[in-house]
Automatic annotation (TrEMBL), chains A, B:
InterPro entries: CbiX-like, Sirohydro_Cobaltochel/CbiX
SUPFAM superfamilies (UniProt xref): Chelatase
Keyword Metal-binding in record: yes
Record protein name field: Sirohydrochlorin cobaltochelatase
EC number: 4.99.1.3
Pfam families registered for this protein in UniProt: CbiX
Keyword terms: Lyase, Metal-binding
Length: 128, 128
């Protein structure tokens, strides 16, 4: 049996959202980050944005790595499945892998693809 | 006791999303609409988009009204709380109320404001 020397906190979670000129746009993204910490106080989580809001993905990934992350799961907080998620994001992940070959990057499905998210949004639409 | 002549189906649900040039962008929106019907087969539901995808909000609302909807709940499928949700959408709702004074329009909170959505997205971010 091998016991890993890697602590659980060596895994980082990067919440990736679109961004907006509007300063309040990112409030729900930051709320998700707080909820991640509330559900798992050992989690290392950061937010990153495609455009118009800092930090971008390389900056946020670099910060997680500087704090010891050796694997990073990128979670696209996108409801719509457009070019940003299907084309831009995989390219960004490849650039991260090239820049940090020792770090294990994984790309989660966009949240809008998850059946449990779809079902919850439908339940909310049916509320009175 | 008053018994309403209005059938339950006189209530329409309008799922309102941003829109994108990308044809596949609306797939999750349409999946939410299908889930609404699956959860309540009597529901009348339509999708509408702020830009780049047809139909727009007035067109979709008009179709629901033409099919008998006498009240319409507009549900913003937006995660981020930007200008579109805080400023554009209330103006669009006012225009709908002016155009259809006999119809009762209500505006649900954006889904990104809902604690249960935030918590679910955090649980998904923590998945392996």
């Amino acid at each position: 049996m091998t016991i890993s020397n890697t602590p659980p906190s060596a895994r980082g979670i990067l919440l990736f959202a679109h961004g907006s000129r509007d300063a309040r746009w990112r409030e729900p993204v930051e709320a998700v980050a707080r909820s991640v910490i509330a559900q798992d106080p050992t989690a290392r989580v950061a937010c990153a944005y495609l455009e118009l809001v800092e930090p971008d993905l390389p900056t946020a990934a670099g910060a997680l790595i500087a704090h010891g992350a050796r694997s990073i799961r990128v979670v696209p907080l996108f409801l719509g499945m457009g070019k940003h998620v299907r084309e831009d994001l995989p390219l960004l992940i490849e650039q991260l892998r090239t820049a940090h070959p020792a770090v294990d990057f994984s790309l989660a499905p966009a949240v809008g693809e998850a059946p449990e998210v779809i079902a919850l949004l439908a339940r909310m639409a049916l509320k009175n």
